[in-house]
What we know:
By secondary structure, the chain is an all-alpha fold.
Amino acid sequence: MLLLVLLLELTVVILFFAYTDKIDKYAQQDLRDGLHLYGTEGNIGLTNAWSIIQTDFRCCGVSNYTDWFAVYNSTRVPDSCCLEFSDSCGLHSPGTWWKAVRDPPGPRPDPRRPQ
């Protein structure tokens, strides 16, 4: 019985590593599809989650800020993507936005706290 459990666990681990890339691609596409719900009626939880994630992790979109271009016709990103938070900062040039998911760490003011 113990051998059966061990073989089952080993099989699960092997399958996990064999399909990691496929799972990653599906997850990224699902997240990109979910960007279209950002800011829409009845999706305040999703909107807040994206805003918090982008603010706390200093990132923009799933891979980078261009993920939002499909949502906003290449004209803007959410304000939570901005290096320095201010109202409507997502309308400015890409030089004011987080570029990628893995931007270098550094201090960032909390947009929810007054300066």
